[in-house]
Amino acid sequence: MVDSNQAQASEGPARVRRGLIRYRQLWALLIAVLLLWTYLSFASPYFMTVQNLTNIALQSSVVGIMAVGFTILLIGGEIDLAIGSTQALAGTMAALLIIQREMPIWAGVLIVLGMGLIVGNVNGYFSLFTKVPSFIVTLAMLGVLQGLAFVMTSGQTIGGFPEAFKVLGHGKVGVIPLPVIIFFAVTVVVQMVLSHTRYGVELYATGGNREAAELVGISVRRVLMLAFIASSMLCTLAGLVLSARLNAGHGSFGSESLLDAVAAVIIGGTSLNGGAGNTFGTLLGIILISTIKNGLILLGVDPFWQQVAVGALILAAVLVDKTIKGELAPGDLLPRLVRR
Amino acid sequence: MTVSAPQGMSGSNGNGALDRIPGPVMMARGVHKSFGQVRALIDATFQVDEGETVAIVGDNGAGKSTLVKILTGAIQPDTGSLELDGTEVSFRTTRDSLQLGVTAVYQNLALADNMTVAENVFLGRVPTRWLRVDRRRMEKESAELLDSLAINVPDVRARTALLSGGQRQAVAIARAFRSGRRLMILDEPTAALGVQEGQKVLDIIEGLKGQRVSIIVVSHNLDHVFRVADRIVVMRGGRIVGSRRKEETTTDDIVHLIVGTRN
Hints:
Largest sheet of chain A: 2 strands, antiparallel
Structural class of chain B: alpha/beta
Shape of chain B: globular
Order of helices and strands of chain B: EEEEHEEHEHEEHHEHEHEEH
Number of domains of chain B: 1
Number of strands of chain A: 4
CATH topology of chain B: Rossmann fold
Distance between the termini of chain A: 65 Å
CATH topology of chain A: ABC transporter involved in vitamin B12 uptake, BtuC
Largest sheet of chain B: 6 strands, mixed
Strand content of chain B: 25-35%
CATH class of chain B: Alpha Beta
CATH class of chain A: Mainly Alpha
Oligomer: heterodimer
CATH superfamily of chain B: P-loop containing nucleotide triphosphate hydrolases
Number of domains of chain A: 1
Number of helices of chain B: 8
Structural class of chain A: mainly alpha
Radius of gyration of chain B: 18 Å
Strand order of the largest sheet of chain B: 7-10-11-4-12-13
Mean pLDDT of chain B: 85
Low-confidence stretches of chain B: 5-21
Largest interface: A-B, 24 and 26 residues
Helix content of chain A: over 70%
Number of strands of chain B: 13
Distance between the termini of chain B: 37 Å
CATH architecture of chain B: 3-Layer(aba) Sandwich
C-alpha cells in the first residue's frame, strides 16, 4: 500500500515533467506570443484594446480553420496546396447560389459542403491511387479550383447575403465573435480526434512510417483519404465563414491565405515529414502570424513587409524545428556559408 | 483473402484463426514467382512445423525475401499454393495473413519512431473504449507482454525513437508475437545490431521458442542461425537447395550449399 501511494505520488510530477518535455515547442510558442504581446502593448497604445484583439482573433479564425485541415494532412505525410482556392471556390459558390440564384441558405450551404467533399475525394484519389505526389495533384487543383471560381462569376464580386447567412461571419456569443468560436471548436474537436481515437493513432503512424503502418494492417489509403476530405471540408467551412464576414464572394477572396496557413502549421510544430504535430500548435502559430501582421500595421510599417515577415518566419520555424530535432547544429549554417 | 478447407480438414474457427491440427503450421507447395524475365522463386516447397524455428539462408538474390513476402501476402505467387494448419489459404495483402496469425518483422520497416512503445506494440489493433483509445490498457498489457518476453525498455510511454537498435527490434518482435501467434517471420533480426544487442535479440527468439511459437528467421549470420534454428533451409538462385536439421549439419556444409559447391 505504501509502495502504491509512493508510486502515485511520484507519478504526478513525472507526468507533469513528461508533458513539459513533450509539448516544449508549444510552451516556447506560447511564450513567444506573450512576449510579442507585451512588446506591442508598450510600443503601441492601440494594441491592447478589445477592438484590436478582436480583430486579431477574427483574422486568425478563417485562416486558422484552413490551417487545422492542413495540419491533419501534414501529420499523415501529405500536403494540400489547394486549400486557398478551395476556400475561394466555396465562398464564390455560396454567393452564386444564395445571392444570385436565391437558393435557401441551407440548400446553398449543403451544395457548397458537397463541393468540398468532392474536392477532397479528387485530391485523395489522384494522390493515393495514381501515385502522383499530392504536392503536384493539389498544385494542379489549385489552378483548376481558382479558375472555376473566376469562371462561375465571370470575375465579378457577388455581394449582399441574407442576414441569416451573415450571422456566420458577424454573429457573437456574448462578446466573442462566432468565427472565433468556430475556429476554437474545430481546433479542440480535431485534436481530440487525433489524440484519443483509433483514427488519430493510425494517422500519426501513417505519417511516421507509412510502410510500417501498411505492414501491421492499417488501411493507409482509407486513413489518408479521410485526411484529404477533412482538409477540403474545413477549407469549405472557412470559405463560408469568410464570405459571410465579407458579405460577398469572389474568386480571389482568401486565395492568398495559403502562405499564412502553411506558416501557422509549420510554426505550430507540425513536422514537414509527417507523424508529428497538433492543432493547438497551429492555433498558436496563426495567432503569432496575425499578431506580427497587426503589429507591423500599428507600428506604421509598409504593409508589403507583412509577406516578407511571414516568409521569413516559415524559414526560421523550419530551422528551429531542425535544430530541436538535432538535424542541424546551431553553428552549422554560418560556417557553411563562409566556407562556400 | 480466400480460405478453403479440404475435406476432412479444419477451417476458420470464426475468430479469424484456424482450428489447429497436428502437422505443419505453414506449407508452401510448388511456388513460382517471376518479376518480368527474372525468375525469383522456382518450384519452392517449404514447411514449418508447430513450435519449430526454421532459418532460411542464402546469398543475396537467392529468393529468401520473395519467399517470405509470399508467405505474408506482401506479394502473390504466380503458381503454387499455401496451406496454414492444413487449410489452403490465399493472402492478397499482409492484412489477410495478419488476420490468420502470420506476422513478419522487417528490418528497418517495423516501427513508427514518432510513437510510444505501447502504441507500437498495439499498432494496427489499438484497443478502444467508447470510441476512445484505451491507453491505460495498452500501456498495462504492453508492459506485461514485454516482461513476459524478458524485453527491457525504460518506459512503455517512451517514444521508440529514443530506444537503442536492439530495444527497437525487441519491441517489433513483441508486436509480431502479440498478433502472430501461429507463425512469426523475422527478416534479418540482428543485421543492424551490435554484438551485445544482437545477443539480446537472440535471447528473445529463444524465449519465444519456449512458448511454442513457430518461427522463420531469415539471416546471413550463420552463428546466429545455428544458435536459434531447429532446421536450416538453404536457397540459391530462386530454388530451395537443401534442408538440414541443425544437429545433423555443420557451418561448412551450409556454406557449401549456399555457394553451390555441394548439392
